Amino acid sequence: MEVANNNKLPFIGMELTKIGKRLETCVYRKTTNKGLLLHYQSHVDARYKRSLLMTMLNRAHCLSSSPDIFAEECDNLRGIFLKLKFPEKLINSTITRFIESRNQQQVRDVQRNAPVRIILPFKDQRSADIVRRQLSDLGKKINSDIRPVFTSKKIADDIRVAEAKSPLINQQCVVYEFKCDLCDADYVGYTRRHLFQRIVEHKHSAIGKHLRDSLNQENKDLTEQFTILKKCRGKFECLIYEMLFIQEKKPKLNTQSDSIKAKLFST
């Protein structure tokens, strides 16, 4: 077993260094290493000599945990290859191209991680699959992640939504009560139609006369002054409950408190 020495431990060509709670890695060379690599004046094709330099740079980049460590290893490689009679211009240009290519790769990776979303209308699944495949091919050519976002057409876009009316307005077949909000005048009645229709008609009834003569408010909106006393199932039930509520509340604006209906159903 091999233990760490001064928080450093060599491991398969790489040295691990413990700094606090984090680890740093760099290229490891034994003390007996003489830097014996391919000599530039050897009878080998020039492409193999350039490839050797690129290979050592790529190895250093993969094993270095930070840019500073990689820069230090580049200086070490520069010294090693100068001893092997590699031209300094070739060494410096190769290192520069390698660093630039890595920076461009990082930029492409960042762009690829941030997808470009295109909103398209949804026609059918077959068309959607074709568009998705075509955008994927285009993204590979320009090094971008292009993703389609399909939206379906809403029925509400074509159909005009009617103005919502309050539950009171849409009621029908009910016994209702009117209470004036400026005095104690009230009225009890019934309708089998929608209540809002009956409210409009009341502008010409005893309620309308009360508003014109007593309060001088002929065009006032009466909706908020009406309340439903009973929801009925038919005209006969409406007549019964109208008579009972008239007897109970004795509304001031009703002129039929002793009407035929009240006499027929009173006990």
Automatic annotation (TrEMBL):
Pfam families: GIY-YIG, HTH_animal
Occurrences of domain GIY-YIG (ranges): 171-255
Transmembrane domains' residue ranges: none
UniProt feature coiled coil, ranges: none
PANTHER family assigned to the protein according to its UniProt record, in alphabetical order: REVERSE TRANSCRIPTASE, REVERSE TRANSCRIPTASE DOMAIN-CONTAINING PROTEIN
Full protein name: GIY-YIG domain-containing protein
Organism in which the protein naturally occurs: Porites lobata
